[in-house]
Amino acid sequence: MTGARSFAVWITGLPASGKSSITEALVPLLRAAGSTPAVLESDRLRSILTPGASYSSEERDRFYGQMTLFGALLVESGIPVIFDATANRRAYRDRARSLIEHFVEVYVECPLDLCIARDPKGIYKAAAARQATAVPGMQTPYEPPRSPEIIVDCRADPGGSARQIAARLKQLEYI
User: Domains in the chain: how many in total?
Assistant: First the structure.
């Protein structure tokens, strides 16, 4: 990793837009380039930081604040980070950008109807049945990035999207 910089990539988009699939495809590309990223995936972290999550606005503020600080500390320690998280409020991602010098925001653009059709975790189904009350894009707003470094289409192959992200990271000399 000679000459490379530690960095963070925040992959954001509506639930079921394909963030995790892109992350899974990106990790081996970064490893092949000599960078071993830590993946901060919101569902995994949430099970530790907010078990029995209520998804209230206050809880989300606290959770994304903690997630951002973990990522910033890792980057500061020389460990690249991939945030795999919806982070429905733009302010969550903007805070990470303000704390992490080498920051790349990736927006997975995906229409809500396609996310609902995919729904691998059943969250949209639960929202429709009123069993979930704070699903981004339905009961809770999702604020897309204003100026992301990269926009990928959710209908594209996750591997192609990952290659697009890796190419940008090379261009920025992060890998």
Answer: 1
Question: Burial level of 88, CB count in 10 A (0-12/13-18/19+)?
Answer: buried
Report field, pTM of the whole predicted structure over 0.90: yes
The proportion of the chain whose per-residue pLDDT surpasses 90, expressed as a percent, equals: 76
Q: Which one, of 130, 148, 147, lies nearest residue 139 by Cα? A: 130
* Domain presence at residue 3: no
User: Considering the domain boundaries, does residue 1 fall inside one?
Assistant: no
Report the C-alpha gap between 101 and 103 in whole angstroms: 6
Q: Does residue 60 form part of some domain?
A: yes
**pLDDT tens across 98-155, in order?**
999 999 999 999 999 999 999 989 889 988 888 888 889 888 999 999 999 999 999 9
Sheet holding 81-84, edge to edge: 38-41, 81-84, 8-12, 103-109, 150-153
Owning domain of residue 139? 8-171
Taking the alpha carbons of 119, 122, 123, 127 in that order, is the dihedral positive or negative?
A: positive
> Could you write out the DSSP letters of every residue in 93-114?
HHHHHHH-SSEEEEEEE--HHH
In a domain, 2, yes or no: no
